[in-house]
Amino acid sequence: MQRYVRLDGLDGLDAIWISHLHADHRADLLTACHGALSADVRLAAPIPLHGPPGMPAFALRAEADGRSMVYSGDTAPRAALTGLAADGDLLLCEAEAVARAASRFAGPVGHADPGAVLTV
């Protein structure tokens, strides 16, 4: 974000979207807020924050100028994600090797296997 929005130009942001409420997907919000306050940034209006209620993980398809990008974090392969990514230009999807994930977590793992993502 720093590449495209200057710290004193945060009013240029329309909104912030997070896919779900795991700490590794929302932790930078606190850092950004602290940085803006430390730099004495004053916003004309609050920046809307969008995300799911509770702990489900949402995917997003963004389209502009005839191109599309689909983002999903912490999900296993699903027909809904495959449909959302169909005919897209870029799929950015968190994935983790099944053997490694199984050794770290008990029960079903909420990350896609990289091989499964590549075949979608």
Count the beta strands.
5
Helix/strand/pairing class, anyone?
A: alpha/beta
Mean pLDDT: 76
Poorly predicted runs of 5 or more residues = none
Spatial gap, N to C terminus: 28 Å
How does this model look, in words?
- There is one protein chain.
- The strands form 2 sheets. Strands 3-4-5 form a 3-stranded mixed sheet, with helices on one face.
- The protein is globular and about 45 Å long.
- With 120 residues, it is an alpha/beta fold.
- The protein is 29% helix and 16% strand.
- The longest helix is centred in the first third of the chain and has 16 residues, at 23-38.
- It has 4 helices and 5 strands, in the order E-H-E-E-E-H-E-H-H.
Give a topology summary.
Layout: E1 16-17, H1 23-38, E2 49-50, E3 60-64, E4 67-72, H2 79-85, E5 90-93, H3 98-104, H4 114-118
Parallel strand pairs: 1-2, 4-5
Antiparallel strand pairs: 3-4
Entry summary:
The relative contact order is 0.15.
Notable traits:
3-stranded mixed β-sheet, alpha/beta, 29% helix, two-stranded parallel ribbon, 4 helices, 120 residues
